[in-house]
Specification:
It is a single chain. By secondary structure, this protein is of the alpha/beta class. The chain has two domains: 10-26 and 242-447, Enolpyruvate transferase domain (UDP-n-acetylglucosamine1-carboxyvinyl-transferase, Chain, Alpha-beta prism); 28-240, Enolpyruvate transferase domain (UDP-n-acetylglucosamine1-carboxyvinyl-transferase, Chain, Alpha-beta prism). The chain is 28% helix and 27% strand. The chain has twelve helices and 24 strands. The protein has helices spanning 28-39, 54-65, 101-111, 132-141, 175-185, 203-210, 245-257, 276-283, 329-338, 358-368, 402-412, 434-441, and strands at 10-13, 19-21, 44-48, 69-74, 77-81, 95-96, 117-121, 144-148, 152-158, 167-169, 191-196, 215-220, 223-229, 238-240, 262-269, 287-296, 299-307, 316-317, 342-346, 372-376, 379-383, 395-396, 419-421, 444-447. The strands form six sheets. The chain has a four-stranded mixed β-sheet with strand order 22-23-1-24. A four-stranded mixed β-sheet has the order 2-15-17-16. Helix 3 (101-111) links the parallel strand 6 and strand 7. Helix 1 (28-39) runs parallel beside helix 3 (101-111), helix 2 runs parallel beside helix 3 and helix 4 runs parallel beside helix 5 (175-185). The chain is globular and about 65 Å long. It starts with 9 loop residues before the first strand and ends with a strand. The structure holds shikimate-3-phosphate (S3P). Shikimate-3-phosphate (S3P) binds next to helix 5.
Length: 450
Protein backbone atom coordinates (compact mmCIF):
# COMPACT_ATOMS: atom_id res chain seq x y z
CA UNK A 1 0.00 0.00 0.00
CA UNK A 2 1.33 3.47 -0.81
CA UNK A 3 0.56 5.27 2.43
CA UNK A 4 -2.80 6.07 3.89
CA UNK A 5 -5.01 8.67 2.29
CA UNK A 6 -6.55 10.65 5.13
CA UNK A 7 -4.34 12.08 7.87
CA UNK A 8 -5.24 11.01 11.41
CA UNK A 9 -4.53 13.98 13.72
CA UNK A 10 -3.81 12.89 17.29
CA UNK A 11 -2.96 14.52 20.57
CA UNK A 12 -1.71 13.64 24.01
CA UNK A 13 -2.08 15.40 27.34
CA UNK A 14 -0.58 15.31 30.82
CA UNK A 15 -1.28 11.94 32.34
CA UNK A 16 -1.16 10.28 35.73
CA UNK A 17 1.32 7.47 36.41
CA UNK A 18 1.63 4.78 33.74
CA UNK A 19 1.10 1.36 35.27
CA UNK A 20 0.80 -2.20 33.99
CA UNK A 21 2.19 -4.64 31.49
CA UNK A 22 3.10 -3.43 27.98
CA UNK A 23 2.88 -6.36 25.59
CA UNK A 24 4.49 -4.69 22.61
CA UNK A 25 4.25 -6.40 19.20
CA UNK A 26 6.82 -8.56 17.45
CA UNK A 27 10.11 -7.24 16.18
CA UNK A 28 9.80 -5.55 12.80
CA UNK A 29 13.29 -6.46 11.56
CA UNK A 30 12.89 -10.12 12.51
CA UNK A 31 9.36 -10.28 11.07
CA UNK A 32 10.52 -9.12 7.62
CA UNK A 33 13.40 -11.60 7.69
CA UNK A 34 11.23 -14.53 8.81
CA UNK A 35 8.92 -14.00 5.82
CA UNK A 36 11.76 -13.57 3.33
CA UNK A 37 13.85 -16.52 4.56
CA UNK A 38 10.69 -18.61 4.80
CA UNK A 39 10.02 -17.79 1.14
CA UNK A 40 13.59 -18.82 0.20
CA UNK A 41 13.40 -22.15 2.04
CA UNK A 42 12.19 -25.56 1.12
CA UNK A 43 9.14 -26.61 3.16
CA UNK A 44 6.77 -24.80 5.48
CA UNK A 45 8.04 -22.15 7.90
CA UNK A 46 5.82 -21.46 10.91
CA UNK A 47 6.00 -18.01 12.44
CA UNK A 48 4.51 -16.94 15.76
CA UNK A 49 4.49 -13.40 17.10
CA UNK A 50 4.81 -11.87 13.62
CA UNK A 51 4.37 -8.11 13.68
CA UNK A 52 1.18 -7.37 11.76
CA UNK A 53 2.15 -3.80 10.98
CA UNK A 54 1.69 -2.47 7.47
CA UNK A 55 5.42 -2.67 6.66
CA UNK A 56 5.48 -6.40 7.33
CA UNK A 57 2.12 -7.00 5.60
CA UNK A 58 3.62 -5.37 2.50
CA UNK A 59 6.56 -7.78 2.66
CA UNK A 60 4.15 -10.72 3.04
CA UNK A 61 2.32 -9.56 -0.10
CA UNK A 62 5.64 -9.21 -1.92
CA UNK A 63 6.66 -12.77 -1.02
CA UNK A 64 3.37 -14.00 -2.52
CA UNK A 65 4.15 -12.01 -5.68
CA UNK A 66 7.49 -13.84 -5.95
CA UNK A 67 5.74 -17.20 -5.72
CA UNK A 68 5.69 -18.18 -2.02
CA UNK A 69 2.46 -19.24 -0.32
CA UNK A 70 2.00 -17.00 2.71
CA UNK A 71 -0.96 -17.73 4.98
CA UNK A 72 -2.28 -16.07 8.13
CA UNK A 73 -3.80 -18.51 10.62
CA UNK A 74 -4.50 -16.20 13.57
CA UNK A 75 -3.02 -13.16 15.33
CA UNK A 76 0.73 -13.28 14.65
CA UNK A 77 0.53 -16.89 13.43
CA UNK A 78 1.62 -17.32 9.86
CA UNK A 79 3.06 -20.00 7.59
CA UNK A 80 5.23 -19.58 4.53
CA UNK A 81 5.55 -22.32 1.94
CA UNK A 82 8.90 -21.47 0.38
CA UNK A 83 10.16 -21.79 -3.17
CA UNK A 84 13.81 -22.45 -2.26
CA UNK A 85 16.97 -20.40 -2.95
CA UNK A 86 16.88 -19.28 -6.60
CA UNK A 87 13.21 -20.27 -6.91
CA UNK A 88 11.60 -16.82 -7.01
CA UNK A 89 9.12 -16.32 -9.88
CA UNK A 90 8.95 -13.02 -11.75
CA UNK A 91 6.18 -10.87 -10.21
CA UNK A 92 3.35 -9.91 -12.56
CA UNK A 93 2.75 -6.60 -10.83
CA UNK A 94 4.77 -3.75 -9.37
CA UNK A 95 5.94 -4.56 -5.82
CA UNK A 96 4.65 -1.85 -3.49
CA UNK A 97 6.67 -1.77 -0.27
CA UNK A 98 4.65 1.10 1.21
CA UNK A 99 6.71 2.91 3.87
CA UNK A 100 9.30 0.19 4.38
CA UNK A 101 12.98 0.72 3.60
CA UNK A 102 13.78 -2.62 5.20
CA UNK A 103 11.19 -4.41 3.07
CA UNK A 104 12.30 -2.98 -0.26
CA UNK A 105 16.04 -3.23 0.36
CA UNK A 106 15.97 -6.80 1.64
CA UNK A 107 13.67 -7.97 -1.13
CA UNK A 108 15.86 -6.33 -3.79
CA UNK A 109 18.77 -8.31 -2.39
CA UNK A 110 16.80 -11.53 -2.24
CA UNK A 111 15.84 -11.36 -5.95
CA UNK A 112 19.02 -9.78 -7.36
CA UNK A 113 20.80 -13.05 -8.15
CA UNK A 114 17.85 -14.77 -9.85
CA UNK A 115 17.19 -14.23 -13.57
CA UNK A 116 13.96 -12.27 -13.10
CA UNK A 117 13.01 -8.59 -13.12
CA UNK A 118 10.89 -6.75 -10.59
CA UNK A 119 9.74 -3.16 -10.30
CA UNK A 120 9.53 -1.63 -6.83
CA UNK A 121 7.68 1.41 -5.52
CA UNK A 122 6.56 2.83 -2.20
CA UNK A 123 4.84 5.76 -0.53
CA UNK A 124 5.97 9.41 -0.74
CA UNK A 125 8.48 8.83 2.08
CA UNK A 126 10.05 5.65 0.66
CA UNK A 127 10.26 7.07 -2.86
CA UNK A 128 12.54 9.83 -1.53
CA UNK A 129 14.99 7.44 0.14
CA UNK A 130 18.33 6.39 -1.40
CA UNK A 131 18.47 2.94 -3.00
CA UNK A 132 21.95 3.32 -4.53
CA UNK A 133 23.40 2.05 -1.24
CA UNK A 134 21.82 -1.31 -2.10
CA UNK A 135 21.93 -1.34 -5.89
CA UNK A 136 25.69 -0.49 -5.92
CA UNK A 137 26.71 -3.75 -4.20
CA UNK A 138 24.00 -5.70 -6.05
CA UNK A 139 25.62 -4.55 -9.32
CA UNK A 140 28.81 -6.37 -8.23
CA UNK A 141 26.81 -9.63 -8.32
CA UNK A 142 25.75 -8.76 -11.89
CA UNK A 143 22.31 -7.25 -11.20
CA UNK A 144 21.14 -4.04 -12.90
CA UNK A 145 18.88 -1.32 -11.53
CA UNK A 146 16.98 1.38 -13.39
CA UNK A 147 15.32 3.94 -11.16
CA UNK A 148 14.67 7.64 -10.90
CA UNK A 149 17.39 10.26 -10.52
CA UNK A 150 19.51 9.81 -7.41
CA UNK A 151 18.74 6.10 -7.25
CA UNK A 152 15.15 6.67 -6.11
CA UNK A 153 12.09 4.43 -6.46
CA UNK A 154 10.16 3.50 -8.54
CA UNK A 155 12.96 1.24 -9.73
CA UNK A 156 13.31 -1.93 -11.78
CA UNK A 157 15.90 -4.46 -10.72
CA UNK A 158 17.06 -6.98 -13.32
CA UNK A 159 18.48 -9.97 -11.49
CA UNK A 160 21.82 -11.47 -12.56
CA UNK A 161 21.41 -14.56 -14.76
CA UNK A 162 24.96 -15.65 -13.97
CA UNK A 163 25.78 -14.16 -10.57
CA UNK A 164 29.30 -14.00 -9.16
CA UNK A 165 30.11 -13.86 -5.43
CA UNK A 166 31.28 -10.55 -3.96
CA UNK A 167 33.43 -9.13 -1.21
CA UNK A 168 31.95 -5.86 0.00
CA UNK A 169 32.87 -3.40 2.73
CA UNK A 170 29.87 -1.40 3.93
CA UNK A 171 30.41 2.33 3.32
CA UNK A 172 27.81 3.19 6.00
CA UNK A 173 26.60 1.30 9.08
CA UNK A 174 23.46 -0.25 7.60
CA UNK A 175 21.96 -3.63 8.45
CA UNK A 176 19.64 -3.20 5.49
CA UNK A 177 22.56 -2.99 3.07
CA UNK A 178 24.42 -5.82 4.80
CA UNK A 179 21.29 -7.97 4.65
CA UNK A 180 20.63 -7.18 0.98
CA UNK A 181 24.18 -8.34 0.13
CA UNK A 182 23.86 -11.52 2.21
CA UNK A 183 20.48 -12.38 0.71
CA UNK A 184 21.88 -11.83 -2.79
CA UNK A 185 24.88 -13.97 -1.85
CA UNK A 186 22.52 -16.88 -1.16
CA UNK A 187 22.08 -17.56 -4.87
CA UNK A 188 25.65 -16.78 -5.98
CA UNK A 189 28.14 -19.64 -6.22
CA UNK A 190 31.08 -19.69 -3.78
CA UNK A 191 31.66 -17.42 -0.80
CA UNK A 192 30.33 -13.89 -0.51
CA UNK A 193 31.89 -11.69 2.15
CA UNK A 194 30.50 -8.57 3.83
CA UNK A 195 32.75 -6.48 6.06
CA UNK A 196 31.14 -4.05 8.47
CA UNK A 197 33.53 -1.57 10.10
CA UNK A 198 30.74 -0.69 12.58
CA UNK A 199 28.57 -3.49 13.92
CA UNK A 200 24.87 -3.32 12.98
CA UNK A 201 21.89 -5.49 13.94
CA UNK A 202 22.71 -9.12 13.22
CA UNK A 203 19.27 -10.72 12.80
CA UNK A 204 19.98 -11.79 9.21
CA UNK A 205 23.15 -13.63 10.20
CA UNK A 206 21.42 -15.34 13.14
CA UNK A 207 18.43 -16.36 11.08
CA UNK A 208 20.44 -17.54 8.07
CA UNK A 209 22.32 -19.85 10.42
CA UNK A 210 19.01 -21.03 11.89
CA UNK A 211 17.69 -21.87 8.41
CA UNK A 212 20.80 -23.99 7.71
CA UNK A 213 23.10 -21.66 5.75
CA UNK A 214 26.84 -21.87 6.24
CA UNK A 215 27.82 -18.48 7.62
CA UNK A 216 30.77 -17.40 9.74
CA UNK A 217 31.28 -14.16 11.62
CA UNK A 218 34.72 -12.99 12.66
CA UNK A 219 35.77 -9.85 14.54
CA UNK A 220 38.94 -8.46 12.95
CA UNK A 221 40.83 -5.15 12.83
CA UNK A 222 38.90 -4.29 9.62
CA UNK A 223 35.63 -4.83 11.47
CA UNK A 224 33.18 -7.70 11.50
CA UNK A 225 33.78 -10.08 8.58
CA UNK A 226 30.74 -12.14 7.57
CA UNK A 227 31.28 -15.00 5.13
CA UNK A 228 28.35 -16.80 3.52
CA UNK A 229 28.62 -19.91 1.37
CA UNK A 230 26.25 -19.53 -1.57
CA UNK A 231 23.57 -21.86 -2.91
CA UNK A 232 22.68 -23.67 0.30
CA UNK A 233 19.39 -25.48 0.67
CA UNK A 234 17.58 -23.47 3.30
CA UNK A 235 15.29 -25.63 5.41
CA UNK A 236 11.96 -24.33 6.70
CA UNK A 237 11.94 -23.48 10.43
CA UNK A 238 9.68 -22.47 13.29
CA UNK A 239 10.37 -18.85 14.17
CA UNK A 240 9.13 -17.26 17.41
CA UNK A 241 9.50 -13.52 16.88
CA UNK A 242 10.56 -11.71 20.10
CA UNK A 243 8.99 -8.35 21.04
CA UNK A 244 10.46 -5.31 19.35
CA UNK A 245 12.85 -3.30 21.56
CA UNK A 246 12.31 -0.32 19.23
CA UNK A 247 8.57 -0.42 19.97
CA UNK A 248 9.19 -1.14 23.67
CA UNK A 249 11.21 2.08 23.69
CA UNK A 250 8.03 4.19 23.59
CA UNK A 251 6.22 2.89 26.71
CA UNK A 252 9.60 2.48 28.47
CA UNK A 253 10.60 6.10 27.85
CA UNK A 254 7.10 7.35 28.60
CA UNK A 255 7.27 5.60 32.00
CA UNK A 256 10.62 7.28 32.66
CA UNK A 257 9.22 10.78 32.12
CA UNK A 258 5.74 10.46 33.69
CA UNK A 259 6.08 10.73 37.49
CA UNK A 260 5.02 7.71 39.55
CA UNK A 261 5.08 5.26 36.62
CA UNK A 262 6.02 1.61 36.89
CA UNK A 263 5.59 -0.78 33.95
CA UNK A 264 6.82 -4.14 32.76
CA UNK A 265 7.60 -5.15 29.18
CA UNK A 266 7.77 -8.95 28.97
CA UNK A 267 9.97 -10.81 26.48
CA UNK A 268 11.83 -7.85 25.04
CA UNK A 269 14.86 -8.53 22.87
CA UNK A 270 18.26 -8.14 24.58
CA UNK A 271 20.23 -8.53 21.36
CA UNK A 272 23.41 -6.46 21.97
CA UNK A 273 23.18 -4.98 18.47
CA UNK A 274 19.84 -3.36 19.50
CA UNK A 275 20.67 -2.37 23.07
CA UNK A 276 22.03 1.18 22.81
CA UNK A 277 18.95 2.94 24.14
CA UNK A 278 18.79 0.89 27.33
CA UNK A 279 22.52 1.51 27.95
CA UNK A 280 21.97 5.24 27.45
CA UNK A 281 18.89 5.40 29.68
CA UNK A 282 20.79 3.70 32.52
CA UNK A 283 23.59 6.28 32.09
CA UNK A 284 20.93 8.98 32.40
CA UNK A 285 19.91 7.49 35.75
CA UNK A 286 16.95 5.31 34.71
CA UNK A 287 15.83 2.40 36.86
CA UNK A 288 15.64 -0.55 34.43
CA UNK A 289 15.70 -4.15 35.60
CA UNK A 290 15.97 -7.10 33.23
CA UNK A 291 14.45 -10.22 34.76
CA UNK A 292 14.12 -13.82 33.68
CA UNK A 293 16.70 -13.78 30.85
CA UNK A 294 16.14 -16.53 28.26
CA UNK A 295 16.37 -17.27 24.54
CA UNK A 296 13.42 -17.05 22.11
CA UNK A 297 13.66 -17.59 18.37
CA UNK A 298 17.49 -17.54 18.49
CA UNK A 299 17.49 -14.14 20.21
CA UNK A 300 18.24 -13.29 23.87
CA UNK A 301 15.14 -11.84 25.62
CA UNK A 302 14.20 -10.73 29.15
CA UNK A 303 11.32 -9.12 31.03
CA UNK A 304 12.02 -5.43 31.51
CA UNK A 305 10.77 -3.57 34.61
CA UNK A 306 10.86 0.22 34.43
CA UNK A 307 10.35 2.60 37.37
CA UNK A 308 10.16 6.38 37.37
CA UNK A 309 12.66 7.67 39.91
CA UNK A 310 12.77 11.41 39.19
CA UNK A 311 14.32 13.60 36.52
CA UNK A 312 17.02 11.96 34.43
CA UNK A 313 20.24 13.75 33.56
CA UNK A 314 21.57 14.61 30.11
CA UNK A 315 24.38 12.50 28.65
CA UNK A 316 26.55 12.29 25.55
CA UNK A 317 26.08 9.23 23.31
CA UNK A 318 29.23 8.10 21.45
CA UNK A 319 29.18 7.68 17.64
CA UNK A 320 30.05 3.98 18.01
CA UNK A 321 26.75 3.38 19.83
CA UNK A 322 24.54 5.02 17.19
CA UNK A 323 23.89 1.89 15.10
CA UNK A 324 22.68 -0.06 18.14
CA UNK A 325 19.98 2.53 18.84
CA UNK A 326 19.45 4.07 15.41
CA UNK A 327 15.64 3.89 15.57
CA UNK A 328 15.50 5.15 19.16
CA UNK A 329 16.87 8.68 18.72
CA UNK A 330 13.42 10.28 18.25
CA UNK A 331 12.18 8.99 21.62
CA UNK A 332 15.56 9.57 23.27
CA UNK A 333 15.27 13.22 22.15
CA UNK A 334 11.98 13.41 24.05
CA UNK A 335 13.55 11.92 27.20
CA UNK A 336 16.42 14.39 26.74
CA UNK A 337 13.96 17.29 26.50
CA UNK A 338 12.57 16.31 29.92
CA UNK A 339 16.00 15.68 31.49
CA UNK A 340 18.28 18.06 33.38
CA UNK A 341 21.16 19.38 31.30
CA UNK A 342 22.03 18.77 27.70
CA UNK A 343 22.10 15.51 25.77
CA UNK A 344 24.51 15.25 22.86
CA UNK A 345 23.79 12.58 20.26
CA UNK A 346 26.88 11.97 18.13
CA UNK A 347 27.33 10.10 14.86
CA UNK A 348 23.67 10.22 13.90
CA UNK A 349 23.79 11.32 10.23
CA UNK A 350 22.01 8.10 9.13
CA UNK A 351 18.92 9.65 10.75
CA UNK A 352 18.78 12.05 7.79
CA UNK A 353 17.76 9.22 5.43
CA UNK A 354 15.18 7.38 7.53
CA UNK A 355 11.39 7.49 6.97
CA UNK A 356 11.95 11.24 7.38
CA UNK A 357 15.00 13.38 8.13
CA UNK A 358 14.64 12.53 11.79
CA UNK A 359 17.14 15.14 13.02
CA UNK A 360 15.16 17.88 11.31
CA UNK A 361 11.75 16.44 12.26
CA UNK A 362 12.66 16.16 15.96
CA UNK A 363 14.48 19.50 16.05
CA UNK A 364 11.59 21.45 14.51
CA UNK A 365 8.90 19.72 16.59
CA UNK A 366 10.82 20.08 19.86
CA UNK A 367 11.54 23.75 19.14
CA UNK A 368 7.83 24.28 18.54
CA UNK A 369 7.26 22.71 21.98
CA UNK A 370 9.68 25.19 23.58
CA UNK A 371 12.85 23.06 23.73
CA UNK A 372 16.25 24.48 22.76
CA UNK A 373 18.04 22.45 20.08
CA UNK A 374 21.40 22.57 18.31
CA UNK A 375 22.16 20.40 15.32
CA UNK A 376 24.64 19.78 12.57
CA UNK A 377 24.81 17.14 9.84
CA UNK A 378 25.90 14.37 12.23
CA UNK A 379 24.88 15.59 15.73
CA UNK A 380 21.73 16.50 17.62
CA UNK A 381 21.91 18.39 20.91
CA UNK A 382 18.82 18.73 23.10
CA UNK A 383 18.84 21.15 26.04
CA UNK A 384 16.68 19.54 28.70
CA UNK A 385 13.96 21.59 30.39
CA UNK A 386 14.52 19.75 33.70
CA UNK A 387 12.11 20.34 36.59
CA UNK A 388 10.65 23.43 34.87
CA UNK A 389 9.02 21.09 32.37
CA UNK A 390 8.55 21.14 28.61
CA UNK A 391 6.04 23.86 27.57
CA UNK A 392 4.39 21.81 24.75
CA UNK A 393 1.24 23.31 23.24
CA UNK A 394 2.32 22.78 19.61
CA UNK A 395 1.55 20.57 16.64
CA UNK A 396 4.46 18.43 15.40
CA UNK A 397 4.63 17.22 11.80
CA UNK A 398 4.97 13.44 11.67
CA UNK A 399 6.24 13.53 8.04
CA UNK A 400 4.99 9.98 7.21
CA UNK A 401 7.25 8.73 10.02
CA UNK A 402 5.77 6.44 12.67
CA UNK A 403 8.55 7.03 15.20
CA UNK A 404 8.26 10.81 14.98
CA UNK A 405 4.50 10.58 15.62
CA UNK A 406 4.92 8.24 18.62
CA UNK A 407 7.78 10.28 20.09
CA UNK A 408 5.72 13.49 20.18
CA UNK A 409 2.67 11.69 21.58
CA UNK A 410 4.90 10.49 24.44
CA UNK A 411 6.13 14.05 25.02
CA UNK A 412 2.55 15.31 25.40
CA UNK A 413 2.04 12.97 28.39
CA UNK A 414 4.28 15.20 30.49
CA UNK A 415 4.38 18.59 28.71
CA UNK A 416 2.60 21.52 30.35
CA UNK A 417 0.20 21.87 27.42
CA UNK A 418 -1.05 19.09 25.10
CA UNK A 419 1.05 18.11 22.11
CA UNK A 420 -0.57 17.36 18.76
CA UNK A 421 0.74 15.44 15.79
CA UNK A 422 -0.69 16.26 12.37
CA UNK A 423 -0.91 12.60 11.35
CA UNK A 424 -0.75 9.49 13.54
CA UNK A 425 -1.62 7.22 10.60
CA UNK A 426 2.01 6.08 10.03
CA UNK A 427 2.08 4.49 13.51
CA UNK A 428 0.31 1.50 11.94
CA UNK A 429 3.46 0.63 9.98
CA UNK A 430 5.29 -0.68 13.07
CA UNK A 431 3.09 -0.46 16.19
CA UNK A 432 -0.58 -0.81 15.23
CA UNK A 433 -1.67 -1.18 18.88
CA UNK A 434 0.28 1.83 20.17
CA UNK A 435 -2.82 3.87 21.01
CA UNK A 436 -4.79 1.18 22.94
CA UNK A 437 -1.63 -0.12 24.63
CA UNK A 438 -0.58 3.33 25.86
CA UNK A 439 -4.13 4.22 26.87
CA UNK A 440 -4.43 0.99 28.89
CA UNK A 441 -1.26 1.99 30.79
CA UNK A 442 -2.94 5.30 31.68
CA UNK A 443 -1.80 7.63 28.90
CA UNK A 444 -4.15 10.32 27.63
CA UNK A 445 -3.86 9.92 23.87
CA UNK A 446 -6.79 10.82 21.66
CA UNK A 447 -7.63 11.42 18.06
CA UNK A 448 -8.17 15.10 17.56
CA UNK A 449 -8.99 17.66 14.92
CA UNK A 450 -5.57 19.31 14.80
C1 LIG B 1 16.68 -2.20 9.91
C2 LIG B 1 17.87 -1.53 9.90
C3 LIG B 1 17.98 -0.10 10.22
C4 LIG B 1 16.73 0.45 10.91
C5 LIG B 1 15.46 -0.06 10.28
C6 LIG B 1 15.41 -1.57 10.32
C7 LIG B 1 16.68 -3.62 9.53
O1 LIG B 1 18.19 0.60 9.01
O2 LIG B 1 16.73 1.86 10.91
O3 LIG B 1 14.33 0.44 10.97
O4 LIG B 1 15.69 -4.33 9.80
O5 LIG B 1 17.69 -4.08 8.98
P1 LIG B 1 19.68 0.75 8.43
O6 LIG B 1 20.26 -0.58 8.45
O7 LIG B 1 19.59 1.29 7.04
O8 LIG B 1 20.37 1.71 9.37
Amino acid sequence: MSGHDTPIPMQSARSGPLRGVAEVPGDKSISHRALILGALSVGETRITGLLEGQDVLDTAAAMRAFGATVTRHGPGEWTVQGVGVGGFAEPEQVIDCGNSGTGVRLIMGAMATTAISATFTGDASLNKRPMGRVTDPLALFGAQAHGRAGGRLPMTVVGAADPVPVRYTLPMPSAQVKSAVLLAGLNAPGESVVIEPEVTRDHTERMLRGFGAEITVEDTVEGRVITLTGQPELVAQSVAVPRDPSSAAFPVCAALIVPGSEITVPGVSRNPTRNGLFTTLVEMGADLTFENPREEGGEPVADLRVRYTGALKGVETPPGRAASMIDEFPILSVVAACAEGRTVMNGVKELRVKESDRIDAMARGLEACGVRIEENEDTLIVHGCGPEGVPGGATAESRLDHRIAMAFLCLGLVAKKPVKVDDGGPIATSFPVFEPLMTALGATITRSNA
